[in-house]
Amino acid sequence: MNETDRKLGPTILKAENISLAFGGVKALTDISFEVKEHEILAIIGPNGAGKSSMLNVINGVYHPNAGSVTYKGNVRQRMKPHEAATQGIARTFQNIALFKGMSVLDNIMTGRTLKMNAGFLAQCLYVGRARNEEIEHRKKVEEIIDFLQIQSIRKTPVGRLPYGLQKRVELGRALAAEPTLLLLDEPMAGMNIEEKEDMSRFILDVNDEFGTTIVLIEHDMGVVMDLSDRIVVLDYGKKIGDGTPSDIRNNKAVIDAYLGVSD
Amino acid sequence: MGFFVEVLLSGLMAGVLYSLVALGFVLIFKASGVFNFAQGAMVLFAALTFVRLLDILKDSFAPITLSLIITIAMMVMLAMAIERLVLRPLVNQPGISLFMATLGIAYFLDGFGQTLWGSDIYTLDIGIPKGSIFILESVFDGGILVAKEDLVATVIAGLLVVTLAIFFQKTRIGRALRAVADDHQAAQSIGIPLNYIWVIVWTVAGLVALVAGVIWGSKLGVQFSLSLIALKALPVLILGGFESVLGAIVGGLIIGAGEKLSEIYIGPYVGGGIEYWFAYMLALGFLMFRPQGLFGEVHIDRV
Ligand SMILES: Nc1ncnc2c1ncn2[C@@H]1O[C@H](COP(=O)(O)OP(=O)(O)OP(=O)(O)O)[C@@H](O)[C@H]1O
Ligand SMILES: [Mg+2]
Asked: With a 6 A CB cut-off, is A57 part of the ligand 1 pocket?
């Protein structure tokens, strides 16, 4: 949207020549792109293009066969997902990955794991201090619940919620970590128009109010064009486009890939 | 009436021990989705280590404490080794691969334990009082006869079970554990180190195995058959549900009490020996009519 008046910061994440293969399947081939601070970057592409794989490389679920990821100026060595989390990278998943046995509140609370000072073991010993901490975290979590307008389902086990709300709770859990970089894998999949509008608004608000950098994957082109500052297009694991929404709209290779006439 | 209570009580006391072993299974199953076939072998290994150290250290100033500390250290190292050498390389593999791996761990531990410590039957005496006493004399005519060692064992096992239940329900580690149990990827993405949780869980399972092994070992002697205790835990799990701590406790008690009561009250009509198959029949019944167990959740896959 308002690309001109947005204040983008310096580069926060740089992927250089990333390649990733599963056996014979080349999920990613020589992918390079950058993400600037406070930017909303969308990754688009047909099914199986390698979008999720790219997110998985960024937060350390997959380790690329070649290439490097530089985050906040440091070239990353083999990194595990929980280490990415300690560096301020939070995410949601394409197939909702909530903790099904827990309530909405508890799910979002788990997002605070890294904000809790008392270490795992210390917590068992200092019951008093841990309790105070717990209350503070509860306050933060309630703020997120208000922000996402899910007060009425706070205590509901997430397994019982409709799909759209589950996606919202998953966003809440990611936000609870107060991330610097937020990765969203198809946050609006399976939603109706109204739900999509709500979700778009939340994403924009997070970006605006907290200055969170966001990389998201989305199939709905309307949403992508509205939300993103920049778009990276993947097809069969290769990058075929990178630019502003209007650049992408006029990109021949992208149009071909989407119309399925590329050969 | 007094006799009925006496039988019930001795059943329940045996049941607490079943609960303890079953709990070891549940913890690991919850955290890693693995049915840990090696739990019984861990009981044997822990008991063997303890009893042999006790012998080696018998002239030291505190043989029991020292042996306990060293055995605990061994169980922690075992947990770390299992995490490093077995679980980590198999991360994201299907459950059946992990199950097969625990089968391997079980055989390794059985063999390794006996190579290291010998395969005789060792008597274990850590000063648990022997003999019987009468209790509740004011309620029942003539009182109720209980074995002191059963009483002590029950108190120890009961305390451990309660401590664990609180630990996993109320502490943050408990929440992290439940998170890992629900979804590995998501748990990692919010900053929970999977490897660390696994080491903790296997350590706790190792400690539970140690307590079960020591209690059982001092009753029956430390011998290979201890590792077969795992077979008794299986019906407990089917009854209680594989994922429920409460289920393991209640399941153990039901099976313990059911065994003894049926032996006494039905046994005479069918020629006795019920104690040996009662648990399995009950489990079979449950598999047919309530496969998720008393406290398990029904999983319906999204299609
Ligand atoms: N863990 C894995 N093991 C084997 N192959 C994988 C794995 N993850 C992804 N792939 C393969 O890599 C390719 C890219 O998959 P990826 O999930 O990244 O695509 P995507 O762009 O997210 O697609 P979709 O729009 O369907 O979500 C596909 O061919 C997929 O089958
Ligand atoms: Mg995908």
From this structure: no
Residues A134 and A196 in one domain: no
| Complex-level ipTM | 0.82
Rounded Cα–Cα distance for residues B214 and B17 (Å): 11
pTM of the model: 0.78
**Chain B residues lying within 8 Å of A174, measured CB to CB:** 189-190
Does residue A122 form part of some domain? Answer: yes
Domain count, chain A: 2
- Asked if residue A195 and residue A148 are part of one domain, the reply reads no
> Do A52 and A72 belong to one domain?
yes
Contact between B27 and B201 (Cβ < 8 Å): yes
Q: How many angstroms separate the CA atoms of A235 and A239, rounded?
A: 6
* A130 and A189 both lie in a single domain: no
Cβ neighbours of residue B283 closer than 8 Å, sequence gap 6 or more: B234, B235, B238, B239
- Across the interface, of A85, A109, A130, the residue whose CB is closest to B189 is A85
For A173-217, what is each residue's pLDDT tens digit? 999 999 999 999 999 988 999 999 999 999 999 999 999 999 999
Count of other CB atoms within 10 angstroms of residue B127? 8
| Residue A254: CATH number of its domain | 3.40.50.300
What confidence tens digit (pLDDT) does each residue in B185-235 have? Answer: 899 999 888 888 888 889 999 999 999 899 888 888 888 888 887 788 889
How do residues B63-95 score in pLDDT, each as one tens digit? 889 999 999 999 999 999 998 998 888 877 777
Q: Which of A22, A183, A185 to mutate to test the pocket of ligand 1 (most atoms within 8 A of CB)?
A: A22
**Inside any domain, residue A93:** no
Task: State which H helix or E strand residue A42 sits in.
Answer: strand A40-44
Identify the CATH number of the domain defined by range B2-289. Answer: 1.10.3470
Ligand 1 atom nearest to CA at A50: 18
Domain that holds residue A159: 98-177
Minimal-distance CA residue of chain B relative to A182: B189
Does the beta carbon of A161 sit less than 6 angstroms from any atom of ligand 1? no
Interface A-B, measured as beta-carbon pairs within 8 A, has a size of 84
Do both A171 and A253 map to the same domain? no
Pocket lining: A20 vs ligand 1, CB cutoff 6 Å: no
How many angstroms away from the CA of A221 is the closest CA of chain B? 27
Nearest to A91 by CA among A47, A133, A57: A57
**Domain residue ranges in chain B:** 2-289
- List of chain B residues whose C-beta atoms are within 8 Å of the C-beta of residue A113: 172, 176, 190-192
One domain, residues A30 and A107: no
Q: What is the mean pLDDT of chain A?
A: 88
Distances (CA, A) of B293 to B31, B235, B237, B283, B296: 19, 10, 8, 9, 5
